Amino acid sequence: GAGVSQSPRYKVTKRGQDVALRCDPISGHVSLYWYRQALGQGPEFLTYFNYEAQQDKSGLPNDRFSAERPEGSISTLTIQRTEQRDSAMYRCASSLEGDGLAGTSSYNEQFFGPGTRLTVL
Amino acid sequence: AQSVTQPDIHITVSEGASLELRCNYSYGATPYLFWYVQSPGQGLQLLLKYFSGDTLVQGIKGFEAEFKRSQSSFNLRKPSVHWSDAAEYFCAVGSNTGNQFYFGTGTSLTVIP
């Protein structure tokens, strides 16, 4: 079956413009995650959803960043008034269920998309 | 706070040689530990994971990792490296309260013939 898809794969924008990055998770996956990966770094957690509910947005760096998943499937990460420091790879992941229970093996694998490479000039 | 340290930024090994990539974590409770591989232009692929039980876990592509609580480590190993193993490897610890992952900075592996 299809994996996690993201669009666009590459986005070049000018400083001050708004951008919207899309993530299409694996069909049936309940949980969806957004990460940001700077060059030479590991992915950094931004936010995640269970169905349409945003469970944790503690990783969003500031109020220019927002995410939504209105119908519990496709998600959009929006960055307003982009700055050069926003340039990075933005990765989306999905999993069957996000509420891993301590002591069980039900902690589900996150499947990652190919990412969107954002460049802010 | 949770964190992951991968001390080796870059490792070069000869094809056929053994490999060990180091990972140390900081986490207050029983950790959920993962190793992911990232090939150029590709997404992250899960190699293996540890939740509980046997501390030596087997993964795909001939990789294994051993959880050592006393050392707060989860090192990745492979007895014989193939040229196709050249990639970036990330260790991650999962939170058991929210399911977000905390990744290390990665180790880049080069395989020479």
Give a brief description.
Chain A is mostly beta strands and about 120 residues long. Chain A has strands at about 5, 10-15, 20-25, 30-35, 45-50, 55, 65-70, 75-80, 90-95, 110, 115-120.
> Biggest sheet of chain B, in brief?
6 strands, mixed
Count the DSSP helices of chain A: 0
| Number of helical stretches of at least 4 residues of chain B | 0
Strand proportion of chain B, as a percent range, falls in over 45%
Care to count the β-strands of chain B? Answer: 12
Which sequence of SSEs, written as H and E, runs from N to C of chain A? Answer: EEEEEEEEEEE
Low-confidence stretches of chain A: 100-106
Helix percent band of chain B = under 10%
How much strand content do the residues of chain A show? over 45%
What gross morphology of chain A would you assign?
globular
Into which percent range does the helicity of residues of chain A fall?
under 10%
Alpha-beta classification of chain A = mainly beta
> End-to-end distance of chain B, in Å?
41 Å
Outline type of chain B? globular
Biggest sheet overview of chain A: 7 strands, mixed
What is the largest interface, and how many residues per chain? A-B, 34 and 28 residues
Oligomer: heterodimer
Q: What is the averaged pLDDT score of chain B?
A: 91
For the termini of chain A, the CA-CA separation is 37 Å
Order of helices and strands of chain B: EEEEEEEEEEEE
Please describe what this structure looks like.
With 121 residues, chain A is mainly beta. Chain A contains no helices and eleven strands. In chain A, the strands form two sheets. In chain A, strands 2, 4, 5, 6, 9, 10 and 11 form a seven-stranded mixed β-sheet that branches. A four-stranded antiparallel β-sheet of chain A has the order 1-3-8-7, with no helix packed on it. The relative contact order of chain A is 0.32. In chain B, strands 2, 5, 6, 10, 11 and 12 form a six-stranded mixed β-sheet that branches. A four-stranded antiparallel β-sheet of chain B has the order 3-9-8-7, with no helix packed on it. A two-stranded antiparallel ribbon of chain B has the order 1-4. With 113 residues, chain B is an all-beta fold. Chain B has strands at 3-5, 10-14, 19-21, 24-26, 32-38, 44-50, 56-58, 64-68, 73-78, 87-94, 101-103, 107-112. The mean pLDDT of chain B is 91. Chain B contains no helices and twelve strands. At the A-B interface, β4, β5, β9 and β10 of A face β6, β10 and β11 of B.
